[in-house]
Amino acid sequence: LKGRIFISYNHNVQSSEHLKNQIADYYKQKYNDIIEVLSVENLTQGTVFKDVIKAKIWSSDRLLVIVPKSTTKLGEDKGYYEWLAREAEHGLLLNKTVTFLREQGFNEQLFKETLKNENLDFLQEGVETEENRSNKLYRNYKNRLQVNFTSLNDNPKSTWQDLNNEMIQALDHNARMALE
Q1: How far is CA 167 from the centre of its chain?
Q2: pTM score
Q3: How far is the C-alpha of 122 from the C-alpha of 134, rounded, in Å?
Q4: Which of 58, 84, 98, 117 has its CA at a distance of 20 to 30 angstroms from the CA of residue 135?
């Protein structure tokens, strides 16, 4: 039996990619092959990436959403949290548990506004729910496990061993729950 954990993160944002790699290394070291880390990366040109994302979230047991301080990519003026919100909402729609990993100093106001945005282009269109999907997303954000982390941009060579205790506890909790 293998547990699967999907990591939602901003591509080309150094702190997000670094933490994703640290988490993947941690699970590989501590849980050997019984935890599989899923993410979306290295897609070939022409791939319908929404379908790939939806399939990976569907096949996962739990979601980790890395919320970086800055979502700005090289060459952009402004960063966005929309894809993180879309992926978290899709997980909730599929009754997955979501843990938010928040970088110290992230723009909480912008993140909350993104979660509450009723015009967000969801991954799964046309789904009727009892509760407004944006309200459910925001409510789940407020009530779910949230773990803070410090950016390691000063030391991009840091490893999973540099993760703080709160992060390790959250990763272990998610692994145990994914295996149940």
Answers
A1: 14
A2: 0.86
A3: 10
A4: 58
